[in-house]
Amino acid sequence: MIMNSQAVTLNNTIEKCNANVLGMLSEIGKGIFFPKLGILAQSAQAKGKNINATIGEAVEDDGTSMHLPEFDKLINLPVGNIFPYAPSFGKPEFRTLWKESIYRKNPSIKGVEISNPITTNGLTHGISMCAYLFANAGDTVLLSNHYWENYNLIFENNYKAKVETFELFANGGFNVSDFGKKLNETKGEKIITLLNFPNNPAGYTPLNSEVDAIVAEIKKVADKGKKVVVIIDDAYFGLVYEANVFTESIFARLANLSENVLAIKLDGPTKEDYVWGFRVGFITYAIKGGTAELYEALENKTGGAIRGNISNISQISQSLLHKVYTEPSYEESKKKKFDILKNRYTILRKELEKKEYADYFAALPFNSGYFMCIELKKGLVAEDVRKHLLEKYSTGVIVLGTVIRLAFSAVPQNKIPELVENIYKACKDLAK
């Protein structure tokens, strides 16, 4: 198949700016482009003309978006911020606002050039677009052994890459040694690794000292000439409840690390701002020496992948979020919700410290996010405990292999002691 000339142009730009980045792209990533010579270009040229018969939307005689009047009493936004298609890259003003927030939330990144964020249909879609752009069939994707099961569906089932894991924990903290070992063992000129902090399901974010060590391991393999793509799943960014835990994204430490390390930050309001059903996320790129020209080429490839996948992201979701982010009360409201989650975390941690529970289960390290995990003792089987909790104690938990995940984010504060007590009772019942 002959590659489209627009894709060739983007590839040439990327190669000129940093040939390593071109080598990181998958074969379909190299072939993708945002179409600027067809319908979109012709529609743009017709914008503002007396008669515009180009756009695939229905409009009223006054030029506003055609819509059902029943919506008018439900949504208090201008019609143009609700019904028309949004650009495949996302609404420009919303992207700008999110980029500013990345710098604000990650002060150590100040002065480092990063791309403009590209809007995605939530973080799951962002991960899928990263797999599209960077993972070939047979490529290894390195994850921690505690990971969200959707990664398998995306990387292995959809793109035929191979998931390998490192042990997340050692001696009560992040297992830097095994992470570095598995990075070095990965074959090929390119390494793809995905880091998710706070981790789902374990609820762990590395300590400040551990982040230094993680970054050092990545730099070691990059200095040997390996091309390293680091996908950073920041779905639960900001939800850190303990001192000495790294409060920025590791993206900030990787953004200017090496010309062989492409850092890709996946984030968004889904969990940060409690809007799960809005389905809005972002992809942001950074690499040492990255220029506006390089990032524009990557943005065009990403925008092309999104256009060829789902066309664009919800206009109304982006408009509502943009409006809320500019409200004076936003930060205070967000802090109140954070405090609720932190209180639940604190109560859960205190409950888990009760001595009688230690006979049957122990908590994996946790300090952040929505979740935590427990490991069972006395030969108890996690799935048996889960079913017993449902049947006898009207309590639902998630089993992931040999661990049980507790979403304390979803449990009212006054029911957290009962949650832990029910697990204890179920374990005690089955141990008999």
3D architecture notes:
With 432 residues, this protein is an alpha/beta fold. The chain has two domains: 5-34 and 88-325, Type I PLP-dependent aspartate aminotransferase-like (Major domain) (Aspartate Aminotransferase, domain 2), CATH 3.40.640.10; 331-431, Aspartate Aminotransferase, domain 1. Helices cover 42% and strands 14% of the residues. The longest helix has 23 residues, at 330-352. The mean pLDDT is 94.
First-to-last CA distance: 65 Å
Q: What is the CATH H-level superfamily of the largest domain?
A: Type I PLP-dependent aspartate aminotransferase-like (Major domain)
* DSSP helical segment count: 16
pLDDT < 50 runs, ≥5 residues: none
Can you list the strand order of the major beta sheet? 1-9-8-7-6-2-3
In percent, how much strand structure appears in the residues? Answer: 5-15%
Number of discrete domains = 2
What's the Cα radius of gyration?
Answer: 24 Å
Q: What is the name of the CATH class of the largest domain?
A: Alpha Beta
Could you say which structural class the secondary elements and strand pairing correspond to? alpha/beta
Tell me roughly what share of residues is in helical segments: 40-55%
The beta-strand count equals: 13
Shape: globular
Sheet of most strands: 7 strands, mixed
The arrangement of helices and strands along the chain is: HHHHHEHEHEEEHEHEHEHEHHHEEHEEH
CATH architecture name of the largest domain: 3-Layer(aba) Sandwich
The average pLDDT is 94
